[in-house]
Amino acid sequence: MMSKEKKRKVEVVVLSDIHLGTFGCRAKEVLRYLKSIDPKTIVLNGDIIDIWQFNKHFFPKSHMKVIKHLTSLLSKNKKIYYVTGNHDEMLRKFKGFQLGSFEIVNKLILTLDNKKAWIFHGDVFDNSVNHSKWLAKLGGFGYDLLILINVFVNLISRLLKRGRVSFSKRIKNGVKGALNHINNFESTVAEIAISNGYDFVVCGHIHQPKMQMISNRQGQEVLYLNSGDWIENLTALEYNNKSWKLYEYANDPVAQNIENEQASEPEEIKIGFNSKQLFNELFEEFKFNPVKAN
Question: Which of 92, 170, 174, 245 is the most buried (most CB within 10 A)?
């Protein structure tokens, strides 16, 4: 185990789209990353546990280790915000819940060195999730199947001493409709952030890690940040010394060489909820000033 002295100090770390409980989740890599840093504040920005695709027959030890590690940080006075997403929308029923330094929220505003960061998962601005949830869930199952196939292909690729391939990333980058969807999402959240006077807008949801200044037609700017995911990109956002950084696990040999420990199997948890009602409540919470047109 890495000693505390050797861990990287991080003021704020933002992770999203881990999707614990699915075949594609890279839980071992998540845990190695978490063990390599000493954060003051952790923001879990949605889709951490994938309740949409939750299967009581599939929740490996490696997935439980991530949860166990995060809960252990609470005893060390680390602040943890759990920002709800669409795949873990059940937790929206518990918004406002606090236990020690742990808090469940639908959105979060952090003041960082006199600048405001607006943090939320992002599904509230995604029409495919809001108006066609059955289609979004079907797409989620298809994505998980694609990841399973990808795992098998990468196993063969390693045996042949070739690099990793990502089918879903190639599909998203090659389909014009997917690119338009991503661009529309980014411009929409940036416009709203600018109109509300935020300096940073921090999202997840679309599995596209990015740091980019986005401006509106009046020339006003906001720094758009997306933490990516822990299915394919293995990325996070880190805030230190008045600046943001896009972390990439692939470029971190220290985290890659950390050994993981054993943990016991989790117990099954069943909780019922009304997803439509929860989303309507979420939308009401996201009250913002309308974007002014020219």
Answer: 92
